Input
Amino acid sequence: NGHKTFDTTKGKRIVDVYVNKTKWAHESKVGYASKTKFIKKQVDKDVLLLKKKRVEGVKWHFFRSAKTGKVGASKPLLKYLNEKKVPYQIHK
Output
């Protein structure tokens, strides 16, 4: 378990935690995340990994920042994750 790098047609995708046993990729964001170009590309690459059966599943996790006290994601980002059918969890 740990980081794993995949090559995709959209470039490299480094997942934060890859669980060998379940073949699930987990992305973690600390603090408040917005739908930036970089994050949107991460979601798109995760969708590719699923389509190509390189992973069994993908889940995004949002953790509270100890520094700022913020947690979660912008409405556009959550909407994008929903549209792409990528499950997520906000850890309050």
Notes: The longest helix spans residues 37-51.
